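Postdoc handover notes: sequence design on the structure in folder B. Input tokens:
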């Protein structure tokens, strides 16, 4: 009996790891179909505690954003939107193993917490429109006092969006911070690979208001719930 227990103990211990690197795709309540991307590196402190550094790249949307379709071109655009917000989040945190999986089977459950600075890029949202009813189209940042979707009576009718990343070089930097808490459920059929899901809550706060839709209420604080599918390696 002692020999069997000793063998099982060695087998369980063999599933421990000193470091982990994962990348993931994020879905959250302030983003679109894909909210953004996540990178995280973790290093062991003791048997159940790890420290981590992370990077998140996210597209943050206003809750009132809705897609419209032009009756002239059939192209879609976001009516009323004047700016994008791209969030770059740096994070330092701790990961506590609540339940360690057996080798090559089961699920490892972690409690995660992290904080860090946020850098927001407030980039202009460009639309394509017809000027003075002419055949030529023009592209510029949306202006609620100028552009409209009423193509039957207006000389500045919106018919679509601008080019991809158009206006990114005109971005304004917004400084802030972020904090998150989550649970992760990690799977893996080998010691060196990991696949899992992380779910939790995050708050992103900036030192000034971020104008996304000028005709709606705009804030500098963005609380979100999120789910991240991640993949990575251990050693």
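Designed sequence:
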């Amino acid at each position: 009996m002692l020999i069997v227990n000793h063998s099982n103990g060695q087998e369980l211990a063999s599933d421990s790891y000193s470091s982990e690197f994962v990348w993931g795709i994020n879905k959250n309540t302030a983003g679109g179909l894909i909210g953004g991307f996540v990178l995280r590196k973790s290093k062991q402190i003791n048997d159940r505690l790890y420290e981590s550094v992370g990077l998140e790249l996210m597209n943050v949307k206003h809750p009132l954003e809705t897609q419209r379709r032009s009756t002239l071109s059939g192209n879609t655009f976001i009516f009323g939107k004047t700016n994008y917000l791209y969030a770059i989040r740096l994070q330092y945190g701790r990961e506590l193993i609540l339940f360690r999986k057996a080798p090559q089977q089961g699920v490892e459950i972690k409690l995660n917490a992290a904080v860090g600075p946020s850098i927001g890029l407030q980039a202009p949202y460009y639309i394509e429109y017809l000027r003075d009813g002419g055949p030529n189209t023009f592209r510029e940042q949306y202006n609620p006092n100028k552009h409209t979707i009423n193509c039957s009576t207006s000389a500045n009718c919106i018919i679509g969006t601008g080019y991809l990343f158009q206006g990114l070089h005109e971005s304004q930097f917004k400084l802030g911070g972020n904090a998150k808490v989550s649970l992760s459920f990690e799977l893996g059929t080998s010691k060196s690979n990991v696949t899992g899901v992380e779910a939790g809550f995050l708050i992103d706060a900036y030192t000034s208001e971020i104008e996304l839709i000028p005709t709606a209420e705009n804030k500098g604080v963005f609380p979100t719930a999120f789910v991240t599918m991640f993949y990575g390696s251990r050693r």
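Context for whoever picks this up: Confidence is low (pLDDT under 50) at residues 1-14. Don't rerun without checking with the PI first.
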